[in-house]
Amino acid sequence: MLKVAVCTLLVLSITAIDIQASVWTSHDQKMFAQIKQSGWGNFILNFGELHLSTGGILSELNTEIAKLIDELDEELAEVHHQYARRTDVHNREVGRLEQEIQDKEREVFNAHDFYDNVLIPQRDRFAAQLEQLQENISQNRRTLNEATVQRANDHADFEAKVSEHNEAISAIDESLGLLSQLSAPSLVQIQKVQKNLSKIQQTLKRHSTFQTFIKTLIEIAVEANFADQGALKDILVAFNNLRVQLVDSLNTITADEAEAQKDFEARVIQLNQEHAEFQRAVVVKTAEIEANATKIEQTLDLIDELHADLDTLNGQLQAEKDDFAFATDVYNATVAEYNKELNAAHQALDLLNQPRFTDYVKSQLKGAF
Predict the structure, then answer these.
(1) N or C: which end of the chain has fewer CB within 10 A?
(2) pLDDT value at position 14?
(3) Packing angle between helix 39-53 and helix 355-368, nearest 10 degrees?
(4) What is the pLDDT of residue 255?
């Protein structure tokens, strides 16, 4: 019955109801016009007129129209349901994205903090430590070179002293040999002894320790009467005493040289060991610097990746918000349209059940005949 009526209505709906009929009040005409602006309201009025004009029963009309209104209510309820589901999905998605963004921001912060407060200070510290190690190596080599030069100089000085001592001892030995042969020394022999004394004095002039003995010998040699055996004995004793002093001095500087050489060799070993330790430390520190540089590069790549992920998540969140805002606009517009149509449908149904509408339809039928 409803399908037949709807089909027939499609043909008759092109003929508008004359709202100027005498059975309508001005208020009814205004309400009628408002209802006609609604698609469903216009449909229900036309459908009601068709139904009543073809002999339909008002109760059946109410039933059919109530079904149409129920269908609209169901459709509106489905709109609400779908929007509620979309809202739940939106809230879950926003919550998920905001949590992921918060987590990602924490990762970004931690990465930046690790870069700024760990890696960079570590890089600077390693660089300073390597620079110090290189300075230690340079200082170590300078110290070794200085010690080597000093040892060479000290050894050369030692050899010069040994040579001087040996020359002096040789001159003393020669003088002793001459003096031991003197019984009635000739002028030539005396001059020879004096010449040797002069040579000894020249050789040992840098050794203040022996200057007193040399001076004494010179005075004795100048003033002595070599023919006097007592004087000759005094000279021999003085020469022997000086020889003993020279030998003791030679033994002392020889022992000192051996000790200095021993100390030097120990110092060389120590410096070379320190140098080896510094070199090993440089290798370790260089490896640490390379590892630090690799970690810095990896961290910077991670920071770029995290920022890209964060941009993606923010983009997804904004897209979800924009999409939900659009869905909300569509929902509000749809609900408003449904409410408008439902209000018009209810008003049309109320109008159909008023006696004035039935009188209007009857007047239309009488006018047609």
Answers:
(1) C
(2) 34
(3) 60
(4) 97
Tell me what pLDDT residue 207 has: 56
For residues 359 and 23, the answer to whether their CB atoms sit within 8 Å is yes
Query: How far is the C-alpha of 87 from the C-alpha of 79, rounded, in Å?
Result: 12
Instruction: Tell me the two tokens of residue 287.
Output: 């490896």
Asked if 30 and 347 touch (Cβ cutoff 8 Å), the reply is no
The residues, any chain, with a CB within 8 Å of residue 14's CB and separated by 6 or more, are none
Q: What is the predicted pLDDT for the residue at 168?
A: 78
Q: Return d(Cα 225, Cα 206) in angstroms, integer.
A: 30
- Please tell me the predicted confidence (pLDDT) of residue 131: 97
- For the chain, which ranges sit under pLDDT 50? 1-22, 367-369
CA distance 369 to 308: 81
Q: What is the pTM of this model?
A: 0.64
Q: What is the DSSP letter of 209?
A: G
Compute the distance between CA of residue 341 and CA of residue 346 in angstroms, rounded to an integer.
9
pLDDT at 167: 80
Q: How many CB atoms lie within 10 A of CB 193?
A: 22
Query: By C-alpha distance, which of 230, 173, 212 is closest to 196?
Result: 173
**pLDDT, position 357:** 63
> In this structure, which long-range contacts are made by residues 66-72, counting pairs with CB atoms below 8 Å and at least 24 apart in sequence?
66/349, 67/2, 68/40, 68/44, 68/345, 69/342, 69/345, 69/346, 69/349, 72/40, 72/338, 72/341, 72/342, 72/345
Distance CA 249, CA 259 (A): 15
- 225: tokens are 């009467």
Q: Give me 114's structure tokens.
A: 């690790």
| Structure tokens belonging to residue 231 | 């004087």
Q: What is the per-residue burial (b if ≥16 Cβ within 10 Å, else e) of 76-111?
A: beebeeebeebeeebeebeeebeebbeebeebbeeb
Max Cα separation, the chain? 199
Do 364 and 20 form a contact (C-beta atoms < 8 A)? no
Handedness of CA 223, 226, 228, 234 (dihedral sign): positive
CB atoms within 10 A of CB 188: 7
- Reading the block at residue 81, the tokens are 């349901």
